Structure formats: structure tokens, C-alpha cells
């Protein structure tokens, strides 16, 4: 009897330790490139957000953490990187400046300009690996001030290849894949983050699902979590032609996925919200429309176990 009890206690301890040491994703920001409130925005919501810190949101970014190796990788270097790095330190309980790498999705302002804080005017980092696709890598190498980060070895550019996984350690890998977007200065990619037991998809920006050669439904079925573009809730949301800034409306995505079982729809977490989106304006009706259909709304600081 004592032997059985001892075995059960050992199994319990091993299970707890295994869970505690599991890799996880932490969401560092959920806003579109310009943050919330946006500079120059004089809508009632932006005015309210300036007065109420609870309504303010940092730009979209996530981090991958492996507690076993104390490793931390950030996806997208936003203009809010200093604040987000502090959040990552608080989340992990590791207050060192260890940063094992940054994965970039594309060359729009919310996704790479935070690299400036790695320069000698700020953190003066030493060879932080920055993973980038060919055009993104070339842009950083050949254009100031980013080229100075390379020449001073603040960052070490590491090339990525479409649909070719990068092995981070024995239990984590990251695979970039091209998605259609406004590629003025670089390609745009999403990422597939894979652990021993789970897969997470990160697509903060894409033009329309119909333009992508891959089926979103198939991606959902083969993944455990999807953090995907929820920039705008519906057409007519901003005071300019929305075709100039194409994104899949949240309403479009929900309609596309409506025939999936709820267990599949519940894998979807919307992220990358514009300040005009009622989901970040805390519109109860719109939030209920999303959650009642089984979808989720990403929140800064939330964790997803891998």
C-alpha cells in the first residue's frame, strides 16, 4: 500500500513538473501597427483611451518561452518593444536581458521598427538573432539605420526559407510560410510554432483568405491554436476605401468557418485589432457575437501552453 502511494505521489509530482516546464506562448500586444489610441486619432474612442490606460493597447506581438532552457523568442519587433520586453521579463520571472531571437513577419511599421531599441543608443545588444525572409533581410542589410545594427553586431541576421522549419531546440521548431499581403518592402509570412504536443499558427497580417493558396479550414484542423488577423470587424469601419488596406474582416472569417464544429472554431483567437474595431472598444454586442460562435479575442498578457 505504501509502495502504491509512493508511486502515485511520484507520478503526481512528475506531472506537475512536466506541466510547469512546458513551453508556452505569451501575447505581448494585440493592436494594429499604430497601437491604441493611434497618433492623430480624434475619434471619441481614441480620446477616451488617452484618458483611460485600461483601453490602451500595444502593437501585436507574441513571445515563445521554454522554461526548461530559460529561452525566450519574440515574434515581431514592435514600436512598443521596450514595454513588451518588460512584460516578458515579468511573465517569465527572468529579469535578465536574455533574448534568444526575434522572428519578423514583414516590413510594415508595427512589425520591425522596434529593432531600433537593440542599437547602441538603447540596449546595445550583442548579436541577437533576427530571423528574416530574403527581401526582409536585404532591406535591413542595405538601408540605414537598420544596416548599422548589422554592422555593429547588435543583431545577427538569420535567413529564413518558405516552409522550412528552424529547429530551436529538442522540442521546439518554427516554420515560416508566405501569405499574401501588401509587400512593398518585404515578403509577408505567418509562422507555425511546433512543440512535442501542440501546434500554434500566427498570422497577424493577410489580405484576404481567398487570396491564400492554403485552406484556412485545413490549417485549423491540423493545429491547436491560431492567432489570426482580426484588424477590422466589418466593412465600412473606417473613413476611407477599405480596399486600400485589405484584411479579412472578423465577420468574413466567422462566416467562412461557420460550418466547422465548435471544437475547431474554438482554436481561433483574433488579434491585430485596429482602433476602430468594436472588439477592442469593448462593444458588448460584437464581443458576444464572436464568443457565442466559439471564437476567442486575444488579450495582452494571456498565455497558451504548448
Description of the structure:
The chain has ten helices and 14 strands. The chain has about 300 residues and is α/β, with parallel strands linked by helices. It has one domain: Metallo-beta-lactamase, Chain A. The protein is globular. The model is unreliable at about 15-20 (pLDDT under 50).
Overall structural class, as computed from helix and strand content, comes to alpha/beta
For the report, how would you describe the main beta sheet? 7 strands, mixed
Shape: globular
Please identify, by name, the CATH architecture.
Answer: 4-Layer Sandwich
Q: Helix content range of the residues, please?
A: 25-40%
At CATH level 3, the topology is Metallo-beta-lactamase, Chain A
Count of extended strands: 14
CATH superfamily: Ribonuclease Z/Hydroxyacylglutathione hydrolase-like
Strand order of the largest sheet: 6-5-4-3-2-1-14
Outline the low-pLDDT stretches: 15-19
Give the strand content.
15-25%
Secondary-structure element order, as H and E?
HEHEEHEHEHHEEEEEHEHHEHEE
How many distinct helices?
Answer: 10
CATH class: Alpha Beta
Q: How many structural units, i.e. domains? A: 1
- Rg result: 20 Å
Mean pLDDT: 94
Nutshell version of this structure?
With 306 residues, the protein is an alpha/beta fold. Helix content is 27%, strand content 22%.
Explain the layout of strands and helices.
Layout: H1 2-20, E1 24-29, H2 44-51, E2 61-66, E3 71-75, H3 81-92, E4 101-103, H4 109-112, E5 128-132, H5 134-142, H6 146-151, E6 155-159, E7 166-169, E8 172-178, E9 189-194, E10 199-203, H7 216-221, E11 225-229, H8 250-256, H9 262-265, E12 268-271, H10 284-291, E13 296-297, E14 303-305
Parallel strand pairs: 3-4, 4-5, 5-6, 10-11, 11-12, 12-13
Antiparallel strand pairs: 1-2, 1-14, 2-3, 7-8, 8-9, 9-10
Amino acid at each position: 500500500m505504501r509502495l502504491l502511494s509512493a508511486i502515485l505521489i511520484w507520478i503526481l509530482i512528475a506531472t506537475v513538473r512536466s506541466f510547469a516546464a512546458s513551453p508556452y506562448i505569451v501575447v505581448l500586444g494585440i493592436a494594429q501597427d499604430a497601437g491604441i489610441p493611434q497618433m492623430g486619432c480624434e475619434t471619441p474612442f481614441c480620446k477616451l483611451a488617452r484618458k483611460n490606460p485600461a483601453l490602451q493597447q500595444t502593437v501585436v506581438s507574441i513571445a515563445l518561452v521554454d522554461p526548461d532552457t530559460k529561452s525566450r523568442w519574440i515574434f515581431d519587433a514592435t514600436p512598443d518593444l521596450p514595454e513588451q520586453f518588460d512584460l516578458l521579463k515579468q511573465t517569465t520571472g527572468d529579469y535578465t536581458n536574455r533574448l534568444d531571437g526575434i522572428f519578423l513577419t514583414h516590413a510594415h511599421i508595427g512589425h520591425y521598427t522596434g529593432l531600433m531599441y537593440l542599437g547602441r543608443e538603447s540596449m546595445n545588444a550583442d548579436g541577437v538573432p533576427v530571423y528574416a525572409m530574403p527581401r526582409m533581410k536585404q532591406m535591413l542589410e542595405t538601408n540605414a539605420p537598420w544596416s548599422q545594427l548589422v554592422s555593429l553586431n547588435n543583431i545577427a541576421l538569420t535567413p529564413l526559407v518558405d516552409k522550412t522549419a528552424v529547429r530551436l531546440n529538442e522540442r521546439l521548431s518554427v516554420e515560416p510560410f508566405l501569405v499574401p499581403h501588401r509587400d512593398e518592402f518585404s515578403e509577408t509570412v505567418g509562422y507555425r510554432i511546433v512543440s512535442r504536443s501542440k501546434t500554434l499558427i500566427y498570422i497577424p497580417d493577410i489580405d484576404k483568405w481567398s487570396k491564400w493558396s492554403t485552406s484556412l479550414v485545413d490549417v485549423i484542423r491540423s493545429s491547436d491554436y491560431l492567432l489570426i488577423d482580426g484588424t477590422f470587424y466589418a466593412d465600412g469601419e473606417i473613413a476611407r476605401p477599405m480596399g486600400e488596406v485589405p484584411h479579412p474582416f472578423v465577420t468574413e472569417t466567422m462566416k467562412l468557418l461557420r460550418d466547422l464544429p465548435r471544437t475547431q472554431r474554438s482554436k481561433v483567437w483574433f488579434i491585430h485589432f485596429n482602433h476602430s474595431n468594436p472588439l477592442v472598444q469593448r462593444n458588448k454586442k460584437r464581443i458576444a457575437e464572436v464568443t457565442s460562435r466559439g471564437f476567442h479575442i486575444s488579450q495582452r498578457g494571456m498565455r497558451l501552453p504548448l
